[in-house]
Specification:
With 189 residues, the protein is of the alpha+beta class. 28% of the residues lie in helices and 23% in strands.
Amino acid sequence: MQPIDAVSVGWTMGHRALVAYRRPDWLYDLQYSHWGGESLSFTDRITAEPPCANGAIERDVLTDSITRDRILTDYLDPCIHEALYLVTPAAEHAVDSFRVCWLEWGGGWDSGRGAAVAVEPADDRALRVWFRSTKTTLADVIEMGALSRRAAQAYLEARICDELDAAVYTYDDVPATDPDRTDASRSDR
């Protein structure tokens, strides 16, 4: 049997990011980038001309008139996205960059507990190393039976909030505008 070649079947890897442009009413218009999450380079590349980082950000708007909290809970899947950029066009396209951290372990791909950590591009590597090291150590502690997954996740969330002032959130892949969405579907997460 031949191994599946991801490229030949249309699957492509990427470093996905969401880019949110703040409007005068403090809501956001949300766009997508397939490669914007790799190095947080968009912090310096998003300008008034061209606002889409020379084509690196798709021009199609995913959604408009959305709050920052809803970007996190309804669009920023921590299993898929690596970065979030908040752009303020009224302030000469000032960009705040956030690294997205997935707060779950293997086997929890359907769970969307994440953290958005504000970080300058120069500090991004240190943040990624810290997070990966801390999460890997906790995975070893879970494997040894010293902590439950729930206790380890609570510890990881506390550390990332206390040390990095992260915004911890639960992503729900059922959009708030979906008529089939119920409070019960959200509480299952």
